[in-house]
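[step 3/7] fold_predict: job queued, chain A
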Amino acid sequence: MSLLPSVAARPKRRGRLAVGVLATALFAQLLGGTSVAAPAPRPLSWQPCASPYGEGAFECATATVPVDWERPRGETLDLALVRHRATDPEHRIGSLLINPGGPGGSGVEFAFGAPHSFSPELLERFDIVGPDPRGIGLSNPVTCDEELIAAQESLLYPDSGSSFAALRRTNGALGDDCRARTGSLVGHMDSTSVAHDLDAIRAGLGEERISYYGVSYGTALGQRYAELYPRHVRAMTLDSVIDHSLDAWTLQKTRAVAMEETFGQFADWCARTTSCALHGRDVRALFDSLYRRAAAGELGDGGDYVFTDEHLQDLSLKFLYTTADWFRFAEFLADLDTPDPAEARPSLRQRAEAAPYAYVPVLCQDFDLHVPSYATLAGYQRRLARIAPVTRFSTLAWGDLTGCQGWPAPVTNPQHATAVDGTPPILVTNSRYDVATPHAWGAGAARQIGREAVFLTYDGVGHGDYWASPCARDAIDTYLISLETPRDGTHCPAVWPTGASARSQQSPGDDLVNPPAALPSTGARD
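[step 4/7] structure written:
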């Protein structure tokens, strides 16, 4: 459930996140791998380290935690952390722990990007602390065979019983390979384990209570932490929220509705925006036409390259994550509709993917998504097409579903209604139109949390309200600093893109999907 419309928003994760030469070298000294000694609570030992973004003063440390929290004196691993110290130490409130989602996003990178990502007011009052969760980034990253990953990716859209069986076999083989390469950690990637890790970090920081900001899948971690450690919470913001109570079908349905509604907002924006490349056209009808042509194999470069309906769905999903690239999205669809295929192919360039392969191990231990047969999948497809007649379904939700079929690890943190008792007020925010975490998810999670929850809606489009809405950002800042919440049920007004078209602003060679590097990328599907 990724925060930004990057190609790193699929379950196809390869490689490791770069965190800067100096920081990497320091962590290489700090990280000791695994051991058999029990992790004794001890203060974290911080050392100066450099940000790859070249701004801000940072410190790096490691925290030792058990691989299996049910065996606290067994094998351990070291978690990498980065801290940006409060710029006004005399008025420092404490530590703000952050998580960018994913699952698979690097908290280390998120913290390194803090001077670009968070307001000066937050930077003044908090130490911003970003851990790389277990199995991610510099915290013993999950590694798997590249060919098996590619094979799994090629099977995420089965069209028969035999291809569904092949998907299950390949998922099983991939999971076994990940475990062989990474170790027993692969079986302990669930959000319950990460919540225990978070509390160990709290203890290492010497804080009785922490403040927490989690976005996207980081909200699943926040909810679990609030369930397990309610009295260790000073303040908590859950931005663009996971509803951990939903079954496999409801996850599909709600994301399909969100995709359809968000595309409808894009189409309506084009209709009233004269600088949109599709202004004056029926954008819904155009998308439907492009989808049918792509499904028939009629789009591509006229040679070996074929632009499929899956490509169209996946790229559209990325463009709809925020409104930042809507001018480019319109031009992309216009180019794709051109009779000259040579004009369409350059628009399909994507950023290189770079993230740990942690998405599936986490997701498939947090959600029971098992379906009994291909017939069930085919039934889902027919029902989704009726629910979302223009966009058909969500590739994000579909990849989650199919990526977990046959995954060889138990679901250790299965779906349940979030039960929180004893925390201070928790600020829950969600965009009205969010293709990754639908508004219904945020509203549902707030209802489950109950009297501790205060729910704010951003009435526009976007994933990550802190960056989409100045109103939401101000409310989050005010709450985290002063503990003053907005009124429950508050709405922030939508913000729509204005100005010249992307074509007049884009430099030669720019990618269509190119979010600012300093903002957190979840490094995975969400």
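[step 5/7] annotate
The first strand starts at residue 47 and ends at 49.
The mean pLDDT is 87.
exit 0
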